[in-house]
């Protein structure tokens, strides 16, 4: 079985982008380019998560689609090949696996936006093929708000690779995504398209996700993923307001829902993973 090599609980890593600010990433710059311009920094972040106990390391490729990279002079294949190599190197000597990270395109699909579903499919297809060729173990499709973008990404991955798909959407406190998707609709779509695990990530701190996670747990028998933010960032310092111990204490509540795959999103660090492992 897919997750048999792991323990009872599986630990993702935490944030990448907010960690890279400590290594010189400036506001407005694309973190993905650091796979080429500062690979040692990216590897250092990955290795810190491995040392903290993460089982799944996500590549630094959240925005590595052709639209997002159009003005950089670099291709998705070039960025992704470097990113997977870096992540695999950081995992050497451990049991951690590498997951190709695929985020939202940042565009809204037709008929509500300007991105054709076929174009979205092609963007995700290019990323998925590059990730598999570079040696990724999984694909993580995350921070999606539109079920049709989820469909485009999952179809592109499943039709062009053999990589297992771990899929998360980002929900608001209301229990809806920005595009109006419910957890029940998400579960239906992701199960239909062959997800290996599904869940929630980003936007909220742990306790703010609990009700939506409960609904998702009732709607699916797939393994559940929870990757919250460390609260909200301070407008001046940029520091997030939910510390590692408080974060992990809140995350303990998800054990009651049968959540098996946990990690962190924006603002979390290796310290959050270490604290998380104390309560799971």
Give a description of the structure.
- The chain has 280 residues and is an alpha/beta fold.
- It has helices at 17-20, 34-37, 39-52, 76-91, 117-134, 147-160, 183-192, 206-219, 244-251, 270-279; strands at residues 10-11, 56-58, 97-102, 138-144, 165-169, 197-201, 224-227, 261-262.
- It has an 8-stranded parallel sheet with strand order 1-8-7-6-5-4-3-2.
- Helix 4 links the parallel strand 2 (56-58) and strand 3 (97-102).
- Helix 4 packs across helix 5 and helix 6 runs parallel beside helix 7.
- The longest helix is centred in the middle third of the chain and has 18 residues, at 117-134.
The major β-sheet equals: 8 strands, parallel
**Radius of gyration (Å):** 17 Å
Shape annotation: globular
Strand content: 5-15%
| Assembly level | single chain
Q: Helical stretch count?
A: 10
Specify the helix fraction band. 40-55%
Largest beta sheet: strand ordering:
1-8-7-6-5-4-3-2
Structural category: alpha/beta
Mean pLDDT: 96
Span between termini: 21 Å
DSSP strand count: 8
Q: Which spans have pLDDT < 50 for at least 5 consecutive residues?
A: none
Order of helices and strands: EHHHEHEHEHEHEHEHEH
Give a quick set of tags describing it.
single chain; 280 residues; alpha/beta; 8-stranded parallel β-sheet; 8 strands
Set out the fold topology.
Layout: E1 10-11, H1 17-20, H2 34-37, H3 39-52, E2 56-58, H4 76-91, E3 97-102, H5 117-134, E4 138-144, H6 147-160, E5 165-169, H7 183-192, E6 197-201, H8 206-219, E7 224-227, H9 244-251, E8 261-262, H10 270-279
Parallel strand pairs: 1-8, 2-3, 3-4, 4-5, 5-6, 6-7, 7-8
Helix pairs in contact: 3-4, 3-10, 4-5, 5-6, 6-7, 7-8, 9-10
